[in-house]
């Protein structure tokens, strides 16, 4: 079996290490050790740790494509699509013992004043995620399942923002209740 190339090893190790320890909680050496490659090889593939962080974000986003695909599955009721999407995210947080949380939220809180490069990519990811949710909310509107008279984009942005807050709190409290509260409030107040 072919050994993954060094760049790929660094991306995978970077994703794992950055997700678990944060951008400022690890050094390039920690990432290269996790990848099993010499430290000097890092700069042959990445201009900076920030450049790797952007690649790690992209990989994290790609890894979540399956969960987001549910949002556009028109064979499923739109409210159940939304519930299933957030439940799958919640299950992942619990499965990882509240350790990693959401890399998008983690980097948002950690790097907002530190890295324009990472923030620009985060903004793009938030916008794409919000559009996916907004499309599903529009389907729920068409089905008469939305209880609030708010624009679908506003509801979608709120869902992303509230979700990220619930994830951060679940990491602090090391328990699921913030995620459960998110689900209860959202699906009791915004949808029928």
Describe the structure.
This is TetR family transcriptional regulator. Keywords: DNA-binding, Transcription, Transcription regulation. This protein is mostly helical. The chain has ten helices and no strands. It has two domains: 6-57, Arc Repressor Mutant, subunit A, CATH 1.10.10.60; 64-189, Orthogonal Bundle (Tetracycline Repressor, domain 2), CATH 1.10.357.10. The chain is 71% helix and 0% strand. The protein is elongated, with a radius of gyration of 18 Å. It starts with 5 loop residues before the first helix and ends with a helix.
Give Rg in angstroms. Answer: 18 Å
Q: What would the principal axes of the Cα set say about the shape?
A: elongated
Total beta-strand segments = 0
The number of helical elements comes to 10
For the termini, the CA-CA separation is: 51 Å
Q: Strand content of the residues, in percent?
A: under 5%
CATH architecture of the largest domain: Orthogonal Bundle
The largest sheet, given as strand count, sense and whether it forms a barrel, is: none
How many domain regions?
Answer: 2
Name the helix and strand elements from N-terminus to C-terminus, one letter apiece: HHHHHHHHHH
Assign the CATH class of the largest domain.
Answer: Mainly Alpha
């Amino acid at each position: 079996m072919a050994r993954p190339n060094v760049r790929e090893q660094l991306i995978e190790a970077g994703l794992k290490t950055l997700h678990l320890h944060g951008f400022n909680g690890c050094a390039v050496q920690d990432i290269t050790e996790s990848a099993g490659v010499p430290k000097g090889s890092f700069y042959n593939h990445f201009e900076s740790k920030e450049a790797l962080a952007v690649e790690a974000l992209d990989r994290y986003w790609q890894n979540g494509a399956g969960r987001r695909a549910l949002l556009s599955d028109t064979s499923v009721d739109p409210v159940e699509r939304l519930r299933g999407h957030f439940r799958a995210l919640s299950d992942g947080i619990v499965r990882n013992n509240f350790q990693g949380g959401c890399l998008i939220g983690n980097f948002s809180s950690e790097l907002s004043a530190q890295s324009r490069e990472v923030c620009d990519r985060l903004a793009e990811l938030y916008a794409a995620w919000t559009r996916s949710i907004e499309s599903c909310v529009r389907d729920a509107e068409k089905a008469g399942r939305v209880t609030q008279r708010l624009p679908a984009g506003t509801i979608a942005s709120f869902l992303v923002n509230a979700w990220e807050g619930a994830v951060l709190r679940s990491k602090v409290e090391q328990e699921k209740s913030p995620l459960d509260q998110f689900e209860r409030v959202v699906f009791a107040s915004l949808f029928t």
